[in-house]
Design goal:
The structure holds two protein chains of two kinds. By secondary structure, chain A is an all-alpha fold. Chain A has six helices and no strands. Classes of the chains: A mainly alpha, B alpha+beta.
Chain lengths: ~140, ~110
């Protein structure tokens, strides 16, 4: 159940990246504000309090982008899914090549179509293999 | 070497977040405060690093979040432990005890 929720969250984050970025920023700003208040109560000036809060928080933009990236990630290892996709494309390309070789070519257009089909599948396979591996958190 | 050290730290932070949330729902700032409180201020964590940890735990289904109103009437995101998170905490506590025990044994060996 939790993985389903995580997957839905991931797709939501991919579909609405700006909304997620705003949500993350609101959450992080709340933290900095709470720390600033605590610093003010400890006797710092407003300027000092804010500066110290930001300093103790660390790199705000870096944290924000890490959080957004984690929200986009899927809650399971995608490498098996990718391997399956690659094998399927390779099998389809092989089957299409066999079909092209064995089928009588009645016109140059149909031959072109069949060769084109094999070429498209081969390109898909090459592109799929070239994609950088998805980051897991 | 540096990589394994970072991994250990990340795992430890995750366990501390789960522990802090086992005592009740909290927002991110509150989690930092609770970790400091239960460790007797011995553990100083860069506050921002809590959030990637929290998001990671949420993606794994160990914590769940919802927006609510904080004590000072501001919108804040509150986190709570899920059943899977509670199980994970028990597991991590056991692993940690084993690791700490083994390390102490090795250090005391003459």
């Amino acid at each position: 159940m939790s993985r389903i929720r995580g997957t839905i969250n991931s797709f939501r984050a991919r579909l609405h990246p700006d909304e997620i970025a705003r949500e993350v920023e609101t959450e992080l700003r709340f933290h900095v504000e709470m720390r600033t208040r605590a610093n003010l109560e400890a006797g710092m000036t407003p300027d000092q309090a804010n500066r110290a809060a930001l300093q103790s928080f660390g790199d705000f933009d870096q944290v924000k982008s890490s959080c957004c990236e984690i929200r986009r990630s899927l809650p399971f290892n995608t490498s098996l899914l990718k391997m399956g996709l690659h094998i399927t494309i390779a099998l389809l390309a092989g089957a299409a090549a066999l079909w092209t070789v064995n089928r009588p070519h009645d016109s140059p257009l149909s031959l072109l179509f069949q060769v084109g089909f094999v070429a498209v599948l081969t390109c898909l396979f090459v592109i799929a293999r070239q994609q950088k591996p998805y980051r897991q958190y | 070497m540096a990589k394994s050290q970072a991994g250990l730290l990340q795992g430890t932070l995750d366990m501390l977040i789960l522990k802090a949330l086992s005592l009740g729902a909290l927002h991110g700032y509150g989690i930092g405060q609770r970790i400091a409180q239960i460790s007797g201020d011995a553990l100083k964590i860069e506050e921002g690093s809590l959030y990637p940890g929290l998001y990671r735990l949420e993606q794994r289904g160990w914590v769940q979040s919802e927006w609510d109103i904080s004590d000072n009437n501001q919108r804040a995101k509150f986190y709570k432990l899920t059943r899977a998170g509670r199980k994970q905490l028990i597991l991590e506590e056991r692993n940690w005890e084993k690791l700490a025990g083994a390390t102490m044994k090795a250090l005391r060996a003459s």
